[in-house]
Structures are given as C-alpha cells and as structure tokens.
C-alpha cells in the first residue's frame, strides 16, 4: 500500500518520519506519540506504516526507537554551543557566589570543615544549577536563553530522575574525554621518545609529498 492510500493520520506520521518537526509543533499535532506504545492510535498507525513506502530502516526506527529520536527536530550544534557558553559563565557566577556565602557562614570554623563544606557545595551546585533547572524549567538557564528544552523519550516534560541521570551522564562524558586526552597525550610522548624526539607531519596540498620534521 503506497503512502497516498494510507489514512490521513498514517500519512502524516509517514511524513514526520522523513521530516521531523519542532517540539512545539510536535506536541500539538502528535499527542498519540506522546502517549507512546499502548495507545490505540499509536499501535494502529505503526501497523499501517508497515504497508507504506517508507524504507525498511525507517520502519525499523519507528518500531524500535522512541519518538524523541526520530520525530523531533534536533537543535543545531551552534545553538547548543552558545547555550553551553552561557551556562558556563552563569554556573561559575552561581558557584562563586555560593562559595562566598558559605565561607562567610563558616567563618571561624576549622579549615577541614570549611574544605568539606566547599566541596559539598561544588557538587550540590552542579546538580542544583543543571538538574533542578531542567526539572523545574525544562532547560538550564543557558538553554532557556537559546530556546532549548529538555524532554523525555516521548517529548514530554522530563521527570526528576531523568534530569539527575543526565547530569551523571554529562560528568562521565567529561571524565571520558579528559581520560582519552591524557592517554592520547601520553601515547604521543612515548612515540616521540621512541623516535628520538622527532615527529613527521605532512604539509602542503593534498596528495603532496612534502614532509617536515619538528
């Protein structure tokens, strides 16, 4: 059955698979996708798509992935980077003001106590700034300023546990990047020592043979 012979909702869904929409439009037009598996409309339409002209991989995607992965338009890297810069500045200010208030409050306490309090605030401030704001406001302050929103797997407001898991995932990604950079740097150092301190690099146009030692 071609897509033109599907009922209007199934045709609309087939179009969505190939052209995702912005979150606001998605929430208005596709409430059954927000309901997810088990919704009568959702189950019926997914079955109808099996007879559409969607590619096999597109049908597989609808069957096995949540709508967030294929129905909602993803923000560009540029906007996400700008949001990151805003958050970086705002978080440093938030962290610094909190530390200043904490040091003033614990003035006269032993240094160990102040150090533990400062460490606890550094950890707590991260989860408060990012986790709490994403749960309450559906975005971090930087995300709000750039029009980004955090959603669950079906495009709904995120729950508290999802927001907390996102922060742990972010920490692990940063740690992974740092460890990868350290391992790569150490490997380059070892290789350079084995080569007597010389490193070869190709320069010039693609396909050229110029080599420089440095």
Q: Can you put this structure into words, describing what you see?
A:
There is one protein chain. β1 (200-202) and β2 (211-213) form a beta hairpin. Strands 1-2 form a two-stranded antiparallel sheet. It folds into 2 domains: 3-70, no CATH class; 76-214, no CATH class. Mean pLDDT is 83; it is low at 199-203 and 205-214. The N and C termini lie far apart (64 Å). By secondary structure, it is mainly alpha-helical. α1 crosses α4 (40-49), α7 (77-105) packs antiparallel against α8 (111-137) and α8 (111-137) packs across α10 (160-194). It has helices at residues 8-18, 23-29, 31-35, 40-49, 56-64, 67-70, 77-105, 111-137, 141-146, 160-194, and strands at 200-202, 211-213. It contains 10 helices and 2 strands; from the N terminus they run ααααααααααββ. Helix content is 67%, strand content 3%. The radius of gyration is 25 Å and the shape is elongated.
């Amino acid at each position: 059955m071609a897509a033109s012979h599907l009922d209007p909702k199934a045709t609309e869904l087939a179009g969505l698979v190939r052209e995702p929409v912005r979150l606001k439009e998605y929430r208005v037009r596709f409430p059954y996708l927000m309901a997810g598996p088990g919704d009568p409309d959702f189950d019926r339409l997914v079955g109808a798509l099996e007879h559409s002209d969607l590619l096999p991989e597109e049908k597989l995607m609808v069957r096995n992935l949540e709508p967030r992965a294929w129905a909602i338009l993803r923000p560009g890297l540029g906007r996400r980077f700008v949001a990151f810069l805003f958050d970086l500045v705002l978080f440093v200010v938030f962290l610094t003001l909190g530390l200043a208030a904490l040091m003033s409050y614990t003035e006269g306490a032993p240094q160990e106590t102040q150090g533990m309090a400062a460490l606890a605030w550094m950890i707590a401030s991260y989860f408060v700034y990012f986790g709490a704001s994403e749960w309450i406001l559906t975005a971090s302050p930087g995300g709000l300023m750039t029009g980004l929103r955090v959603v669950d797997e079906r495009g709904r407001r995120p729950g508290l546990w999802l927001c907390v898991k996102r922060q742990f995932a972010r920490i692990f990604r940063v740690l992974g990047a740092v460890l990868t950079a350290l391992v790569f740097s150490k490997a380059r150092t070892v290789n350079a020592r084995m080569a007597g301190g010389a490193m070869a690099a190709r320069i010039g146009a693609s396909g050229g043979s110029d080599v420089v030692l440095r």
